[in-house]
Specification:
About 40% of the residues lie in helices and about 25% in strands. By secondary structure, it is of the alpha/beta class. Helix 2 links the parallel strand 1 and strand 2. It is globular and about 55 Å long.
Length: about 270
């Protein structure tokens, strides 16, 4: 995942520790829900480190997959991690996809939409590069609801410091809900639009495993965390530690929800 915000998504390794590992659990459920036949031509918009791309290659039997991302460091990571003769990666903007009209059977995107400034332009571009009858599909985290690892963080952070709301994607990304997603796809002219919740467990062996990714500076919550001075950060850490639901052996068992949306291009 990447978007036009290099200050937020700064490094492939940090992203992998923070969100990439959970996206890997959502991606196969997403591609299964799309239900595309083997042999399709795919494009992954905002491919990031190649999470969704690799799942498509492994489970969907595509003819080819093109990965597009605006961040060169993510593309470097994707090219290193995803080795397959059917895949190619190139730099490009989700709001101006560098591909011809009507090129792909499936135009997909994972965890990108809310970071793109012009969301209508992104969906219109996805429709443009899809073949008639093709599928346009995406998924985003349910930041305001059941994305528990982030909700616990921001609920505590905002209680301690109202400035944290400026970083909270539950506030900043109202599109990540079924109604706005449906409206966005329908407005772009897509038919048979559906929105589906995808839920996964997010288990942490202990508090340190939960907390450490927030120190990487990659993503909205980590960016807020590293903006604090040491005393404020440690205070946040201790309050959060005491408020998280913790099992008898220190384990933290949370859940994450993504909203998936898809539609069919007329033709």
């Amino acid at each position: 995942m990447s978007a036009a915000q290099p200050n937020v998504w700064g490094g492939g390794d940090a992203y992998e520790r923070y969100m990439g590992r959970w996206s890997r659990k959502v991606a196969p459920l997403f591609t299964d829900w799309i239900g595309v036949s083997p042999g399709a031509d795919w494009i992954d918009i905002g491919c990031g480190t190649g999470v969704l791309t690799s799942v498509v290659l492994d489970t969907c039997a595509p003819s080819r997959v093109t990965g597009i991302d605006s961040a060169a460091n993510f593309l470097d990571a994707a090219e290193t991690q995803v080795r397959d003769s059917r895949v190619s990666f190139k730099q490009g903007d989700a709001q101006a996809i560098p591909e011809a009209d009507g090129t792909f059977d499936v135009v997909a995107s994972g965890l990108v939409l809310n970071f793109v400034p012009d969301k209508d332009a992104m969906i219109q571009e996805m429709v443009r590069v899809a073949k008639p009858g093709g599928t346009v599909a995406l998924y985003v985290w349910d930041y305001a609801g059941h994305m528990q690892l982030m909700r616990h963080f921001f609920d505590v952070a905002t209680m301690l410091d109202p400035r944290a709301r400026e970083f909270d994607d539950g506030v900043r990304a109202p599109v990540c809900r079924p109604g706005p997603l449906t409206e966005l796809l329908v407005s772009a002219g897509l038919a048979d639009v559906e929105v589906q919740a995808i839920d996964i467990p997010t288990a942490f062996a202990n508090f340190d495993e939960y907390w450490t990714p927030f120190l990487g500076g990659t993503g909205s919550a980590p960016k807020y965390c590293v903006s604090l001075d040491e005393a404020a950060r440690q205070h946040l850490r201790e309050v959060l530690r005491h408020r998280l639901p913790t099992g008898p052996d220190g384990e933290i068992l949370l859940a994450a929800r993504a909203w998936a949306a898809k539609g069919r291009v007329a033709g």
